[in-house]
Specification:
It is built from twelve helices and eleven strands. By secondary structure, the chain is α/β, with parallel strands linked by helices. NADP nicotinamide-adenine-dinucleotide phosphate (NAP) is lined by residues 141, 172-175, 177-179, 196-198, 200-201, 206, 219-222, 225, 240-243, 277-278, 281.
Length: 301
């Protein structure tokens, strides 16, 4: 069996074209669309993510406001930047880069974000709406996972509802920003969903869960965690992980949580890293920024 490669870059290009049109129309109507990002410290992955978002925002003609604080910034300074952005009418969406330095109470900063600008649904109000199946914003990574699945199903001519109703989706990783939202989106599609965290791996039980999966979503942040023994033939594999590996000659490679070469021969379809979930996530974040502007203007998209 040779897996179909689910091409995230192509999906992102299509989404971007639709989004550019929507953003242009809204700007023409005078709506305030703007993405604000807040970074505390200069963690490598956050800096790279911000650079990609800035490029994308420029391409889509969406203003991007970058607020950076030193890693030593205290809770009050971080909260005060968030409050400033809440009050700024030119900002429709706020993204706070994670991880935050350990002395910052992340949940408290999340609670400080205006729920109407909380495009990653980290505020308890938005996380709750998502868990109830009535999201205001769908966090960009989980949205991308299911966008790729949905569009892949369309491309192979499978009925989405039929596929999800008879599928078990296993989600490896249970973070608030990726794993749990993926579980909620699986429920929303009336699939059976199983969530696995580090305990399953450390007790040697990971394969017991993952081998049952029709769809396997891996978001653990552990390079090569899922290998051939963890999947059965015909599984659809979505690799969310992004891990930087440095080779002995100093070259840095991005790899996922899935050992692509080992798993691809068994999978029905698989996302690569890079070029899978990541590019769609970036566009989805801008999509949520535009959606926030629409909602603020009382428009139901
Ligand atoms: P996170 O906050 O560190 O959460 C990782 C989750 O994985 C935790 O629930 C953890 O379990 C679980 N886990 C860790 N090791 C495990 C193992 N060996 N077996 C099973 N579960 C394990 O990370 P995150 O923010 O969710 O991100 C996960 C990965 O996705 C990272 O590589 C990140 O860079 C990547 N990511 C990619 C995108 C994209 O657009 N492609 C976007 C966001 C994140 P415990 O709860 O027990 O600790």
């Amino acid at each position: 069996m040779s897996a179909q490669i689910i091409d995230g870059r192509a999906a992102a290009r299509e989404l971007k074209a639709d989004l550019a049109t929507a953003a242009k129309e809204l700007r023409g109507d005078g709506l305030g669309i703007g993405l604000a990002t807040v970074m505390v410290g200069d963690e490598f992955s956050s800096v790279a993510y911000e650079r990609r978002l800035r490029r994308l925002a420029t391409e889509l003609d969406v203003p991007h406001l970058s607020r950076r604080l030193p890693a030593t910034a205290g809770q009050a300074s971080v909260t005060s930047v968030v409050e400033e952005l809440n009050a700024d009418p030119s900002v429709s969406g706020i993204l706070l880069f994670r991880p935050l330095p350990p002395h910052i109470d992340e949940a408290a900063v999340f609670r400080a974000i205006d729920p109407a600008k909380d495009i990653e649904a980290v505020h308890p109000e938005n996380a709750g709406l998502l868990a109830l199946g009535i999201p205001r914003f769908v966090p960009s990574t989980a949205a991308s996972v299911f966008h790729l699945l949905d569009t892949w199903l369309d491309s192979v001519g499978e009925d989405r509802a039929d596929f999800y109703h008879r599928s078990l989706i296993v989600v490896v990783g249970r973070s608030n920003n990726v794993g749990k939202p993926c579980v909620s989106l699986g429920f929303a599609r009336q699939a059976a969903v199983e969530s696995v965290d580090e305990w399953a791996s450390s007790s040697g039980g990971l394969a017991r869960h993952t081998r049952q999966a029709d769809v396997l979503v891996v978001a653990a942040g552990r390079a090569g965690l899922v290998t051939a023994e963890h999947v059965r033939d015909g599984t659809v594999v979505i690799d969310v992980g992004i891990n930087a590996l440095t080779t002995p000659d100093g070259t840095v490679h991005m790899v996922g949580d899935v050992d692509f070469d080992a798993v691809a021969p068994r999978a029905r379809a698989i996302t690569p890293v890079p070029g899978g979930v990541g590019p769609v996530t970036d566009v989805w974040l801008l999509n949520n920024t535009v959606l926030a502007a629409q909602l603020a203007a009382g428009r139901v998209p």
